[in-house]
Amino acid sequence: MNPRRLSGLLSCSVLLSAGAVGQIEWREHSLSTQRQIEMTFDGARGRLVALRGDKILEWDGSAWQTRPTATRPASRLNHGFVFDDVRRRVLLFGGIAGNVQFGDTWEYDGADWTQRVTPTAPAARSSAVMAWDPVRSRAVLFGGLIYGGALHSDTWEWDGNAWTRALVSGPIGRNDAAMAWHPGSQRMVLFGGADGMVPRSDTWTWDGTSWTQMQPATVPVRRAGHRMTTDFARGCVVMCGGPDPYPWEWWGGDWQRGPQGPSQRTGFGLAWDGTTGQVAMYGGTTTAMTTSSVTTMGDTWTYDGTQWLQLGNGGPQPRAGAGIDYDPVRDRLVFVGGGDAWTTPTHTWEWDGAVWREIIPPVEPPYFQLTRVCHDRARGRTVLFGGMLSLFGQNAVWEWDGSNWTNPQPPVSPPGRFDHAMAFDRVRAHVLVFGGRNLNVGYGDTWAWNGSIWTPLATAGPSARSGHAMAYDVARDRMLLFGGLTSGQGGTMVADTWEWNGSVWQQRLPAHAPSARLYHAMVHDAARGRIVLAGGARSSAAQADSWEWDGSDWSRAGDVGGALAPLVAWHDRLGRVVALNLVSAGTMLVSNDLWIGSPSVAGIATSGTACGGARLPQLSPFGDPVLGRTVFRLDVVRLAAQAPFVLAVAMDATTMPIGGNCRMLQNGLVSVLAVANVDGFAVVPAPVPANPVLIGLEAVFQVGALDPTAPLGFGLTAVVTARVGD
Fold first, then answer.
1. pLDDT tens digits, 111-137
2. Residue 503 and residue 448: Cα distance in Å, rounded?
3. Distance between CA atoms of residues 70 and 91, nearest Å
């Protein structure tokens, strides 16, 4: 393979996309914090793989990337997740989403998911422990939680085709234990878990026939929600997490404590990385999920037996009702406030365009939910107003100057509220607030904050409401308001559009409009002179759409990933809209993901179908073709073992029939001639040059591989089109 040659072809074998202003599209820029992660090392494809909710995440060596799949299991947490070393696929079993537990079995081959339905299987459960025995070629499953509180104490094994129950006695029933295979003794090692709400500290081994309780001289403190993995490089089992920040190592007869590592946590991903030969850790929460105070993390670490090395920091923990805005002087995205049923957030987070940093100022606002934030560009302050504290609406103003929070005490303030709308009026140099609620009281008033005093501006205009959004159109000098939930008995979700001209509100009656919703977000796109509306909720369902207002009508734009309550801001330096999207698994918020909105966003599309014989080859892009991204690559999956293949690059996706239900790129130019590994997998690097002239250009790829079982003697993948973007 020749990455330089492919990079050159990517820059010349393209078509310029037409269009002037263009509608906004969205791409996932980076993954943030992760809770209740399960992780394993995919030995066939040589990479760490994790499951978050219903999304597969893969580590590209420097960051986590989402792998789109055509089929996926239902979103879940607390599932079993291991690599099947015989079938060379990732195995998933069970889990929970809300009050629904699963007893299904799935396999992921690096391209897509396949559900395995067997006549016999373990009962539905969550928080069971599952690990792979490479000598006996079995996945071993033990215990788990039955919804309602009862515990399983059964042992099951998966051989790649069927589940078999081992009719033996062993450890008492438990949930959130940890288990891994020990190379020296060639036995499974299980430690701890919870007997109901009580963590345990017992050690057990499984030899494929019976369980044996061990009596080590050194016993780690009792724990649940921890993780264990096999360190094949050093020949031991590594256990991390729980009530202490130390790794513990099992060498066959006793536990040994290792060097202090990352902060204590539960529900994180832990796996031995066969590429680096080190143990990798990802995400998690600071305490057990049964407590009321949880901080979710998104950091990634490696451990070589001697020291820990941090590779990345995830950002703010997932929480609803927070606020963000951009500070143009300091070139920072500021995030503050919010919460969910499990989280007591603290501190202030800032994103500098590359990494998130948590700031711990000496004084900071209280724990506000459903607050609102905007940046006062006249005074260089990020302003926070209102929010809910102990169920009651607040009327405090807090201001952030990049170093400290201050709490002005104006003589008059609006009534306390939350779920209001707030934006900065650049012409009049004040923060405008409209509406909101406090318990059962709804507001339809308009107020302005100039940094010293509050001024009531209007009582006539939109009906009293909450959960609506506002954005200021600089060029037209108008404040735009859309949607929300009207106040009163039951409330009504509305889809009305209003404009404030500095003196009065005027309702606009456009020909088109987004559907009625609340908790959406709005921001002015300064580069294109449009107001962008993203996401929101309708009948508790997250809306994936985004819309644009050009001053007279709404038009549909791209999908933003089904964000229930997104946060959006205009980023001056990037010249793009950025969105922080809440991601949920069942009823639990598991992550904040950062998205970029642009009319020239990088994108991937697949057209046509694969053809072949016993195997249908597949071409799967890994990551997005973002300008200057050196890690963008193409995975070739489902080939025969060590099958030769070619990758062709073309200027367009036009194909021609060649027989055998195959269609081949009409103008394809062969770029790579290579051979798959023993698992029928290969990686073709496709670094994107950092040349702005490439933005909006497209390259089309297709792979052909020798296959003696195919009518033509070879198979072809579907066609993949990569659009270079920012």
1. 999 999 999 999 999 999 999 999 999
2. 11
3. 17
Fold of 36-273: Neuraminidase (2.120.10)
Q: What's the confidence (pLDDT) of residue 18?
A: 31
Spatial separation of the C-alpha atoms in residues 711 and 584, rounded to whole Å: 45
Whole-Å CA distances, 561 to 62, 708, 710: 23, 41, 38
Domains of the chain, by residue range, sit at: 3-17+603-723, 36-273, 320-598
**Contact between 721 and 684 (Cβ < 8 Å):** no
pTM as predicted: 0.84
Fold held by 3-17+603-723: S-adenosyl-L-methionine-dependent methyltransferases (2.20.130)
Q: Same CATH topology for 3-17+603-723 and 320-598? A: no
Cβ atoms of 262 and 198 closer than 8 Å: no
For residues 518 and 509, the answer to whether their CB atoms sit within 8 Å is no
Q: How far is CA 684 from CA 3, 102, 640, 681, 694, in A?
A: 7, 37, 17, 10, 20
User: Which tens digit of pLDDT belongs to each residue from 570-617?
Assistant: 999 999 999 887 666 555 565 678 889 999 989 899 999 999 999 999
- Beta bridge partner(s), residue 133: 138
Q: Could you count the other beta carbons within 10 Å of the beta carbon of residue 512?
A: 9
- The CATH architecture assigned to 320-598 reads 6 Propeller (2.120)
CA separation, residue 501 to residues 29, 420, 468, 506, 512 (Å): 35, 19, 18, 8, 22
Burial 122-149 (b: 16+ CB within 10 A, else e): bebbbbbbbbbbeeeebbbbbbbbeeee
